[in-house]
Amino acid sequence: MLRYDPESDRSEWRAYDVPLRAPGTVLGLLHHIKEEIDPTLVFRRSCEQGVCGSDAMSIDGRNRLACRTLVDDPSRTISVAPLPGLPVVRDLIVDMRPFYDNYKSVAPYLIGAGPAPEGRERLQSPEEKARFDNSTGCILCAACTTTCPVFRRRDTYAGPAALVAAHRFIFDSRDAGDDVRYPLVAHLDGAFGCRTAFSCTDACPRGVEVTRAIAEVKRWAVRHGSGREEDRRL
Asked: Which pTM was predicted?
């Protein structure tokens, strides 16, 4: 395990021998280390069901959720490290603020066309919801963004998670924020910075088709930028 001590500003690999009496998860092994071997170890976790996304880390060189990574071989050696590309606070905890700042930069909220209808919701058909439904699966774990080669070279790039959030609202039939989001995503630090490496899609623990969503945002940006009304939302 790669551990970081902020007091000495040093990182070092430490080995732990953890018994495995039944199939379990990497998160379970981390709990055993903290409770039985080294109480100074720190890491994030919350729901332990693969929904909160707080226990994302690098496991055997791939970004994964510790609670969803199974271990069934007691002789197996596993490497664990904090998510790459973000400042490390201590041990397996990274500073998520740059990630959240990028997420907020794309206006990830519904921008309605005028006030809500009185006495009812803004209605939407199942077909209209299906247009962006996959993008709603994002749990903001940062696994996709921190595995992205563009983000790891250039932290001004919004990153895959932010662009998936943009996709979720751009293609929502109830949203009227096209003119707000266009300047936020239609540049090299936005959708056009993506190099289609598919590493983000591979890292997503929730099956979000990240690369496809970004490609659709690119096409939308080109069409929206044409200025022709018939090109919008195609």
From this structure: 0.92
